[in-house]
Design a protein that fits this description.
heterodimer; A: mainly alpha; flat; B: 16-stranded antiparallel beta barrel; two-stranded antiparallel ribbon
């Protein structure tokens, strides 16, 4: 019985571009290339409809459900748990 | 049949307790005292009813509870529990026949005794954790008749650049024990699975109405990763399903939250996923949130998903060896695309009622989602939730 390939890189050009774009965005967020937003200008950002945190539990529930129907996982910035075998 | 196991991928290893402790210590040491979102100053309780039903007639009823209680030094104790009842329909053909195999979906059920009756399993989950402003530690336990899952998670974050940028790093270790129930046609032995996860997430305020989040996640999974009850029709006979024992999974994601002028917001997200089984997937999601009056907002959801197939996936296998010794009857390993539509209503009574203190402590929400994919599968999901602030 042959062993399964241990590593696979993202091969095609569109996938590489997509991965590179995401990585650049990740790095770009840490750079100083955007203008400052003062504390008093952040009123809109505190509303519930703008919150990432308010969606976190719903996102986790949806991810767990879809893990049992699709072949991938992730995208929430956290780890899942359990068997996901529904 | 005794299932044979492959060797772990070169350069990877399963994290033991000592390594886990070292990892958590490093992560905790990196944390610093807090500036960001503080824990609540009064306890909050939440209860939720959730029902999932698919076109394969599998039903999952979930009763969940959450409790968050402030404790010492600006920290909160969080508790979560979930009781689930999974009902898997009776097979419609004699055990061991191809028709019976086709009747089994991604859900796990043994074929033993009277398989012409519905199979019901109960799952109980518990999660407890301590959450401070910039760090958290959680323990998760999931138990059912043939599966015990445990996981420890740690996360730290810090604000930099005048609180415009938040950087977060998280890790988790999971270890699962699988004890397959008696089954007439597979006879799998007890097995285990371990998962090591890490993530790096950056969140940036781009403008007074715009926030962007980007992240990278990486998972290393070892152990049983197929359905111990499922057979595959290969080489003219039925043989147990077999997936590789090692899997490396990684994804990149981008999220954008944009406030719109009329008390509404647009949220967009994209995820690129890839693993060493050969699956690459793209996910695009969007939702619009709109306040219709003070304290009441509605949400509209759409999600599109597409993936390639695993290297060892075939609709039919000419020999019992499958592809490289692996064979699968799991449609999740094949080419797949799906759509999901959703709608929700959220009500915060504190903004609607002015003179009854008890009612002002309540929040309500109702959520409906419709999912369907190109494998002729569809599902409905309904959630109702009630919050109470003490």
């Amino acid at each position: 019985m042959s062993g399964h390939r241990a590593r696979r890189t993202i091969g095609s050009l569109p996938l590489r571009l997509a991965a590179a774009s995401c990585l650049l965005a990740l790095l770009g967020l840490g750079s100083g290339c955007t203008s400052a937003v003062r504390a008093y200008q952040r009123e809109r950002l505190t509303e519930r409809i703008m919150s990432f945190q308010a969606d976190a539990k719903a996102t986790a529930r949806r991810m767990k459900t879809l893990e049992s129907r699709e072949g991938s996982t992730g995208g929430s910035g956290g780890a899942g748990g359990g068997c996901a075998c529904n | 049949m005794q299932l044979r196991r492959g060797t772990p991928a070169r350069g990877t290893r399963v994290l033991g307790p000592a390594a886990l402790a070292r990892t958590l210590a490093v992560v905790a040491a990196w944390a610093m005292p807090a500036l960001a979102e503080p824990p609540p100053d009064a306890p909050i309780a939440n209860s939720m009813f959730r029902y999932f039903t698919g076109s394969d007639h599998i039903g999952v009823r979930s009763l969940m509870g959450d409790y968050t209680m402030p404790v010492f030094q600006s920290s909160a104790l969080t508790l979560h529990w979930n009781n689930e009842q999974v009902r898997i329909p009776a097979i419609s053909a004699p055990a061991g026949t191809q028709e019976a195999i086709d009747a089994i979906t991604t859900a796990s059920r043994p074929i033993a005794g009277n398989a012409f009756q519905d199979f019901v399993k109960v799952r109980n989950e518990f999660q407890g954790g301590i959450h401070a402003e910039h760090r958290s530690v959680d323990y998760y336990l999931s138990t059912e008749s043939d599966y015990l899952g445990q996981q420890v998670t740690a996360k730290v974050d810090r604000d930099v650049r005048d609180d415009l940028l938040n950087l977060a790093v998280g890790t988790s270790v999971g270890w699962d024990a699988i004890r397959p129930a008696e089954d007439s046609d597979t006879n799998s032995d007890d097995d285990k699975k371990t998962t090591l996860h890490c993530n790096l997430v950056a969140t940036r305020i781009m403008a007074p109405t715009t926030v962007v989040r980007a992240g990278f996640e990486y998972n290393i999974v070892h152990g049983l990763q197929h359905n111990p009850y499922r057979n595959v029709y290969a080489g003219g006979t039925n043989v147990p399903e077999r997936h590789p024992d090692a899997r490396q999974r990684r994804d990149l994601f981008l999220k954008l939250n944009q406030y719109l002028s009329n008390r509404s917001s647009l949220k967009l997200n994209y995820r690129l996923y890839n693993d060493d089984w050969g699956i690459t997937s793209h996910e695009i999601g969007s939702n619009i949130n709109q306040y219709i009056t003070q304290g009441v907002f509605v949400r509209w959801d759409y999600r599109y998903y597409t993936q390639t197939s695993a290297d060892f996936y075939r609709p039919e296998y000419p020999t019992v060896d499958g592809i490289g010794g692996y064979r699968t009857g799991d449609y999740r390993m094949g080419v797949l695309s799906s759509h999901l539509f959703g709608a929700a209503v959220n009500v915060d009574l504190a903004d609607l009622i002015t003179d009854h203190d008890w009612w002002r402590r309540l929040g309500l929400s109702v959520n409906y989602e419709r999912y369907f994919n190109n494998n002729n599968y569809s599902a409905n999901i309904v959630e109702t939730s009630l919050d109470f602030r003490f």
